[in-house]
Amino acid sequence: MQNKSVQDVGVRVPRKLAIAGFNLCASIFLGLCVYGLLVYSEGGKPPPGEYMTSILFGAAALVSIAGIGFFGSQWDRRNAEESREAKTSPLPDPGKPKKR
What we know:
Mean pLDDT: 80
Oligomer: single chain
Strand content: under 5%
Largest sheet: none
Low-confidence stretches: none
Number of strands: 0
Structural class: mainly alpha
Radius of gyration: 22 Å
Shape: rod-shaped
Order of helices and strands: HH
């Protein structure tokens, strides 16, 4: 039976997906921030009847922040795994010819 550390338990996301998810969530969050600044610069209150829209934008901002945290931590884990593998893997001997 293998012992797993706390970090090994949970969802495992490939590195490319972690990068793409992080970039997507960051882009959504920045877009929502720009929208909020535009609304704020036009008087500070949304047009009448758009409170539900404001709540949905707030929820989308929270979900994008959670996505940034999740995909960012997955990206860090993949980088740590790759650096650990690079340190433990032996370098090929330059004097020996490569097998074909």
